[in-house]
Amino acid sequence: MSDIANSRRSHTAHFKAQIVIAGLAGTCSVAELCRRENIPESSYYNWRKRFILAGTLGLKRKALRQQTPRKPQSAVRRQNAELVALEALFVNTREALNVFPNRLSEKEKMSVIKLTRTSKVSVRATLQRIGIPRSSYYRWVRQLSDTGTLQNCVRAPGYCCVVDRPDVKKVVFQVMHAPPSNFGFNRTTWKMDELQEAVEKSGVRVGKHSIRRIVKDAGYRWLKARKVLTSNDPEYRQKLSKIQKILGALKRDQGFFSIDEYGPFAVKQRQGKKLVPPGEPFTVPQFQKSKGSLIMTAALELSTNQVTHFYSKKKNTDEMIKLLNLLRVKYSHLGRIFLSWDAASWHVSKKLIENIEHENSRPRNAGGPKVELAPLPAGAQFLNVIEAVFSGMSRAVIHNSNYASKDEAKAAIDRYFSERNEYFQKNPKRAGNKIWGKEPSVSGFSDSNNCKDPRYR
């Protein structure tokens, strides 16, 4: 610190005045002047302000404050001895007049005033020695001067701090638990000013600080409500247990597919997060002309982490049957496949069920696996494992994109799933951890999942 202080330059008042006059002349800008003289602009403006107010004398450094001479050691010893005697006298007086163990009585306060006035030591030193705040002492002196007594400065024996009074606490919590509209405030949550006003209307005068103490001591704290993932399906537990039972006993010749649709989404410039250099804004037009719309139907096989997808014009039963036929051909080597999807109407249509029953009634040698349904509970899209894959795909190739056409967007999506499938063919791994490190949530089936991440859809 001393090195910094020694390296700091010191300018004379004459030099500062010349700089200020040059700046006021306007022959060059203040920035150029300060750069040429190697001084900060803030110093120039400070000098100019002082120069205008007081001329050259205002630019002189203030003289260092002279240190008060120290008292002789003999005087210090006499003062300490006096303070020790005062403290002993004060303690003896308190023991003789003690009424309240934790505070001073009227007689004790009178003795403090008398002791301080007769002391040969300063008031500050005396009060500091006996442990009395100066503000309290001068308040007692004013009270004694105005009224001739200190009775009003003494608390009653049964005094209780306002934050500890049960009647005050009761009123505060009664008001706080009621909606503000009951007291004429057009709000849904309390503000401190309005809470204090409502408590006062209820017949109790208490300050804001005391209300804060009462609320905090009771353990209350501010919390922001969290959105809870819930399903209103009355058979939620039964359906969930069925899926977990199937996954727990899945054989090598069986496959479990998580199925859903992505979209429709418009092909246009998309927003997202990206690294931006300083000073360069990152904006996306609010109103854009769409270059087309895409809907993708896909199935994720949980054992091999392979995605099968194609593009649809609509979300309906025909597209589900198309996906079902595609899976029958691609996974013809399996004996049984399980299909898990949400409760959309085209996932449980009569036409789809009849198609599945018809195909299952065919003999085994006709080819193709048997199909069994394991539907998700209603309103539980957050349990659909493929939603995590869609979130990863969206973050990778949809966000921050500006594809020129639908075909270009399709090519990017196809390449993403192709590379992803190739990776898990070379590195076999069941869906369970974060798939490929690009999906934001765990892709294994669990009742605590939140696969449908709104940040990436």
UniProtKB/TrEMBL annotation:
InterPro entries (UniProt xref): Homeodomain-like_sf, RNaseH_sf, Tc1-like_DDE_dom, Transpos_IS630-like, Transposase_8, Trp_repressor/repl_initiator, WH-like_DNA-bd_sf
Listed GO biological process terms: DNA transposition
Domain Tc1-like transposase DDE: 259-408
Sequence segments annotated as region (Disordered): 435-457
GO MF annotation: an example: transposase activity
Record-linked Pfam families: DDE_3 (PF13358), HTH_23 (PF13384), HTH_Tnp_1 (PF01527)
Stated name of the protein: Transposase
Organism: Octadecabacter ascidiaceicola
